[in-house]
Amino acid sequence: MIPLSVPQLAGNEWKYVKDCLDTGWISSAGSYVNQFEQLVADFAGVKYGIACMNGTVGLHIAQVVAGVQASDYVITPNITFIATLNAIKYTGASPILIDVLPDSWQMNLALLESFLSQESELKCINGQWNSYRKEDGKRIFAIMPVHVLGNMGDMDKLQELATAYHLVIIEDSTEALGSYHKGQHAGSFGKFGVFSFNGNKIISTGGGGVIVTNDEALAQKAKHLTTQAKVSAMEYIHDEIGYNYRLVNILAAIGVAQMEQFPTLLENKKRMDDYYRSELSEIGDIEFQMVLPCVVANCWLFTFKTKYMRELLDYLNSNGVQSRPFWLPMNQLEMFKNDIYVTENNNSNEIYQTSISIPSSAGITKAEMAIVVQTIKTFYSKL
Ligand SMILES: Cc1ncc(COP(=O)(O)O)c(C=O)c1O
Q: To which protein family does this belong (predicted)?
């Protein structure tokens, strides 16, 4: 079976893990943690990085530090992985789900703008301007764009809306290490960005995340909260409810080795994307995800639309090519059925009904890609 997306561990992973084992520094302190978070921050062009257990807890902490309250709304796209929504719910806040564009699959900002202009009002309370939903008076505090599949939407427009409506930007850039909008790296547009290093990402620590920010005080606060809010190196004194969300040194060691290979793996991904796009462009009714000319995407997981998605999915999986459907839109999940969903055409559902992801490991070989392409061509030739 050609796998969907598996890690490529061809560098110094063994060496650095052995170093942890040999020295006994396997746990919550150690030099690899600092190195890894700085490598990720530097790559993203952001000043500070805070390593944590995974992207989900990173999104949680970023919201807590940004000031999201249980009574707030957080705006996010209706097409995302469940973790985005879970992290919002951990804070107690409620999501406002925005439908996505049918071609790029990113949040529809025109739809968001008309929602905000019609259904919210700006108020200054205790010297702080925020948007409030007219219907229930609840604060609309943050916007969490998700760079779906490593693609990016119009970040100029997103920032313009965030400024006009006083929204704090927290980027779910978990899938977007190596993606740029007008030369600016994903995760660097707002107060916080969060990256994930789980097993299916371009590089992996097994499980891991890094929160990035340009604000030193926010970085310190995030570090403090992810490490049990301990105020003294010696004494067990804690000044608030903290979390044990830190990344352990042995996983950060893998992360350092992975970051060393990241530029090469990113190039492989781009070659893979070029190959799939050129080989599959005329096949059946296949429609690719649109990437804006000002975006350089990291090509994380190759996904396309076809009305034969279900049949193709069965065919590929039973012919040695691991493939997956797309996420069920958030508004269709039981837990979020009663949350606000802003839509005109329900593009999210159309994308869900038609999209399929095909093998995209950073280490995928040309021979494997040729098999994937040939299997897809055979499927369409039989229709
Ligand atoms: C869009 C999105 N958000 C959040 C996450 C959560 O990251 P993690 O799996 O590291 O918790 C992921 C990755 O799995 C993701 O794809």
A: Belongs to the DegT/DnrJ/EryC1 family.
